Amino acid sequence: MPEFISFRFLAGLISIIACVGLLRLVHKRKIAGYEFLIWSGILCLIFVLSSFPEIILTLSKYIKLSSTERYDRLFLVSFLFSFLTLSLVFYYRSKLDKLKQTFINSIQQPLVKKFVENTYNLNSKIEVLILIPAFNEETNLGKVLSRIPKKIYGFKSHVLVISDGSTDLTSKVAKDFKAMLVEHPTNFGQCMAYRTGYLIATNLGAKFVIHLDADGQYQPEEMELLFRPLVNDEADLVSGSRILGEYQQHFQKGHIIRSIGLKFFNIVLTLLTGKKITDSSSGFRAIKSSFLPMLTLKQDQFHSSELLLESIKNGARFKEVPITFLERISGDSKKPNTLRYAFGFFRTILKTWTRK
Question: Which residues span the domain enclosing 218?
Answer without folding.
Answer: 122-354
